[in-house]
Amino acid sequence: MLEIKNLSAGYGKVQVLHGVSISVPKGKVVTLIGSNGAGKTTTMRAVSGMIAPTAGEISLNGKRIEGLESFEIARRGLAHSPEGRRVFATMTVTDNLRLGAFPRYTGSRPKGDVEADLARAMDLFPRLKERREQLAGTLSGGEQQMLAMARATMLQPDVMLLDEPSMGLAPILVAEVFRIIERLKEQGVTMLLVEQFAAAALGVADYGYVLENGRISLHGPADKLRNDPAVKAAYLGGGGH
User: Fold this and answer.
1) Which part of the chain is the ABC transporter domain (predicted)?
2) What is the per-residue pLDDT across 72-110, written as a single tens digit (0 to 9) for each?
């Protein structure tokens, strides 16, 4: 479904990723964990076309996507819920969601029933339903996070990238975000999840990769990683930070 092979990327002369390889099979949730500065967000940005890789291959459904523009990658079926939410502040919740379906209106993705999917997104995120006519900029941080996730589902993506969905949220909202990830998983949505709360991420994922200094240091089934002494010591103590 999504294959990343020997990916290198960075910013200007600063190389952040050094030969990263990750496989995200269809219908599975794969998580990428690591400390701050390990290169998790850089990986997501390189996959979704926000930055251009300097080396390596990225394939979506067997077709190479590295080097394409973000909008072209979205048309191919990859949705990105970025770190820091990035909602359209001066548009309503409903219009933000419709924008997520934009490639379906233009014919570059199968259209399907956008209205039914809009209703489904509102059911999945009840807080958004209550605030559907509100401007996105007036929502709380947690609500904006849910909007960013819901907007990504509106593409009806083949693969969804979730970058730090729980960042800056109160514990009750973190639990809500993971409940929604669990529901998306039940619906068969393929996801690559980057998350500070390693314990929660490994709890919802099928498979995990540990990123250290821009390199994959360890990978395996999520339950195995959760019980790995080195992973426990580095990432699962003190709330998973």
Assistant:
1) 2-238
2) 999 999 999 987 778 999 999 999 999 999 999 998 888
Query: Which residues does 105 contact at the CB level (< 8 Å), separation at least 6?
Result: 111, 114
- Which one, of 70, 71, 122, 61, lies nearest residue 97 by Cα? 122
- In the chain, domain spans: 2-240
The domain 2-240 is classified under which CATH number: 3.40.50.1820, 3.40.50.300, 3.40.50.720, 1.10.8.100?
3.40.50.300
CB-based burial label for 238 (10 Å; 0-12, 13-18, 19+): exposed
Task: Find the radius of gyration of the CA atoms of the chain.
Answer: 17
pLDDT tens across 159-172, in order? Answer: 999 999 998 888 88
